[in-house]
Amino acid sequence: MTSKNPLFITTIGNRSPSGASWSPEITNFSIFSREATAVELLLYQTEDSDEPMQVMVLDLEVQRTFFSWHIAVENLPVGTCYTWRIQKPDGSWWEILDPWARAVSNKKWNRSEAIHKANNSGLRGIVSDIRLDFTHLPFKPKSLDGAVIYEVHVGGFTRHPTSGVQYPNTFKGLIEKIPYLKALGITHIELLPVMAFDEQDVPDGVAELGNLNYWGYSPYGFYAPHPNFCATPDPVHEFRELVDALHNADLGILLDVVFNHTSEGNEGGPTIHFKALLDDIFYHRSSDRKHYRDYTGCGNTINCNHPLVTHFLVHCLEYWVNKMGVDGFRFDLASVFTRGEDGTPLANPSLPWSIELSHSLVNAPIIAEAWDAAGLYQVGSFPGTRWAEWNGRYRDVMRRFVRGDRGLIGEVATCITGCSDLFADDHRLPSSSINFITCHDGFTLWDLVSHNGKHNMANGENNRDGTNDNLSWNCGAEGVTDNPHVLALRRQQARNFMALLFLSQGVPMFLAGDEFLHTQGGNNNAWCQNNEISWLNWQLTETNNDMLRFVRELIAFRHRHPCLSRPRYLTGRTEVSRGIPDITWHGFRLNEPLWNDSDAQVLAFTLAGCSSEEEDLHVVINMADYSIDVPLPVIAQRRWYLALNTAAMSPYDIIERDNQKLVTRHNQTIQARSIVVFEARETPPTTFRNLIKFF
User: What is the DSSP letter of 516?
Assistant: First the structure.
């Protein structure tokens, strides 16, 4: 078949693969729809073209196979824009975006116009060359063993004028910051959504203030890099350059994936693609089919466990691994994945298991945010065997403990050792626990120690949005202050949080900017703040260089201590090679932890090195508002060195190994609200000239 008056010659094409598959000779287009009664392919010369240069009418008899509509176009240039036009059974026509588009343009997109005119011609697919061109293939994704995850918003990381990059707000700008990431010591970056999302998807009150959907949790293009993060007209190649650059620097890349809802919203939202193609299949619908069930707080919920939808989502992940080279994924509101077609949680839902068992994803880290917006909370019980989970309990326990809550010693100890009570019963490992104190959603680290309440008026929702349960403490003054005592205490509390995070078994994750005390002014829900509230101010790397140094040295400390990221849970059993327990718990006295003390705020533990070459560690945590005296344990043929003290000023808050001094006093004074760490190692005779008595 050929179209009338063709600019390009067309043939029947093939139903597989879906999307636009380009080669120099021919480009195959295929789209799946059980509902369409007629289909047309529209080609646009450029992203700015108002009218298509060619409309191709597909023949129902020969160009529909098993509900897939397909056509092939000869000699089509890369960069050609396209949409599909679909006729539904009610006779209505819809110009839609290809859900399988590998690149998209949003230059003509107007969400409000799409809603009120009941049509969408503003989002367009871009024909792309997705043939493999990685410089490093084949590659094996970086695992989470020994990982340190750094959560990054691509735009906000380099958007501020102080970032000093040539290409701010882009994937290329992130490449320019790789030397900083390497110096910091992280192993993986976890990017907030980079699949194409709708920046215009905000409520009216938010839009009136000029705010946009900044975080990106409003996807419409699951296969396509977000066009506004691109400095070039070739999103596929630009994103691949980022992946290659990160891998060449031995850094892994994880994507924050939104498979729980789309930007089409509820019955009042626009029709972008799935509403026209697979409305009754792709979304959870009410029994009368008039409304969309909402387990996400965003208007609709993807019907993840319908076989067709599961296939679409898993294939999408396989594409990002096999074609785009990413290492793994974190899934937003992943408990949606466990809901059946009636919304009821399933014991064995198909999507989580299909992701876990995919051959292409077998080595890819997969991380669940194991809750949703409708109250389903599955931390420790997410289906599957190798899933890691954002550990919300870890966050909450540590926040309460550091702010001064009493009687949490048992819970703190459990969190420090990897939360075996959550994960060990189904044979998962300490790396199943993604430990975090802060993330994009909530206070930054500095705001956590500077505010008792949220300050979200800039969002345009009268401070109703964002959680009220921040488990924070402002150290004596709300927000900005010049009180030197309050400021010093805040910095000490920030060091306490970071120290706990990196002294815990499991996988530490922290928010970009926390290492130099970025603030959002107390805004704990900056999802719509594409401005200096959210953008990282790189001048703070100088202003707060002491904190940046502390975090860098803390990460380095963790990397050189395998005992802090053991592959198996600590048990208290004696290490055969060393003859000492892998962990021993203490309180004010050795071997007497305060498990049953409802007022306890002190916990200490001794951690055996994983080998005779690794130093043992002794950690004392005092979250009381008074100093304490505690003894150091005796380990045969080893002496203690002071490594870390969060109550000390830089550079004595954390001391490089070669500069550590030998400790000679058996009893040590631990200051209020502080953490002290000692390293035990064999002492060369010459070291005795550097004996130290401290505190």
Answer: G
- Burial of 462 per CB tally in 10 Å (0-12, 13-18, 19+): exposed
Given 90, 111, 126, the domain boundary residue is 126
- Beta pairing partners, 256: 330
CA–CA dist 449, 486 (Å, integer):
10
Q: Encode pLDDT of 3-32 as tens digits.
A: 445 689 999 999 999 999 999 999 999 999
Residues 247 and 325 sit within 8 Å (Cβ to Cβ): yes
Greater model confidence, 387 or 121: 387
Secondary structure element (H or E) that encloses residue 550, with its range: helix 545-559
What confidence tens digit (pLDDT) does each residue in 485-502 have? 999 999 999 999 999 999
- Domain total of the chain: 3
Rounded CA separation 262/331 (Å)? 14
Residue 251 DSSP one-character state: -
DSSP notation for 452-514: SS---GGGSSTT-SS-S------TTSSSS---HHHHHHHHHHHHHHHHHHHTSSSEEEEETTG
Q: Is residue 297 part of a domain?
A: no
* 268 lies in some domain: no
- For residue 138, what pLDDT is reported? 57
Q: What is the mean pLDDT of residues 611-626?
A: 96
Q: How far apart are CA 433 and CA 420, in angstroms?
A: 9
**For residue 331, is pLDDT > 70?**
yes
Q: Is 577 in the same domain as 647?
A: yes
Same domain, 351 and 473: yes
Question: What pTM did the predictor assign?
Answer: 0.96
State which residues form the domain around 660. 571-692
Mean pLDDT, to the nearest integer, of 293-309? 97
User: Which are the contacts of 215, defined by CB distance < 8 A and separation ≥ 6?
Assistant: 153, 192, 193, 440, 526, 527
DSSP state of 515: G
Please, are residues 8 and 43 in contact by the beta-carbon 8 Å criterion? Answer: yes
Distances (CA, A) of 11 to 96, 216, 533: 22, 38, 53
Q: Tell which phi-psi region holds residue 250, choosing left (phi > 0), alpha (psi between -120 and 50) or beta.
A: left
- Say how far apart CA 201 and CA 192 lie, in whole Å: 17
Report CA dihedral (285, 286, 289, 295) to the nearest 10 degrees.
Answer: -30
Q: What are phi and psi of 499, to 5 degrees?
A: -60, -45
**Catalytic site positions:** 332, 369
In the numeric block, which tokens belong to residue 474? 């402002």
Q: 205 with 336, same domain?
A: yes
Are 166 and 176 contacting, i.e. CB atoms less than 8 angstroms apart? Answer: yes
Phi/psi at 257 (nearest 5 deg)? Answer: -110, 135
Whether 558 contacts 508, CB under 8 Å: yes
- Residue 138 inside a domain? The answer is no
pLDDT in tens, 354-388: 999 999 999 999 999 999 999 999 999 999 999 99
**At residue 381, what is the residue type?**
S
Which 8-state DSSP code applies to residue 299?
A: S
When pLDDT is cut at 50, 70 and 90, the band that residue 685 belongs to is low
Mark whether 330 and 416 lie in a shared domain: yes
Is the domain of 202 the same as that of 333?
yes
Q: How far is CA 285 from CA 219, 282, 376, in A?
A: 19, 9, 18
Neighbour-count burial of 117, counting CB atoms closer than 10 A to its CB (0-12 exposed, 13-18 middle, 19+ buried): exposed
Distances (CA, A) of 616 to 195, 416, 419, 583: 44, 16, 22, 10
Strands of 92-251, DSSP E: 93-96, 104-105, 124-126, 149-152, 188-191, 195-197, 219-225
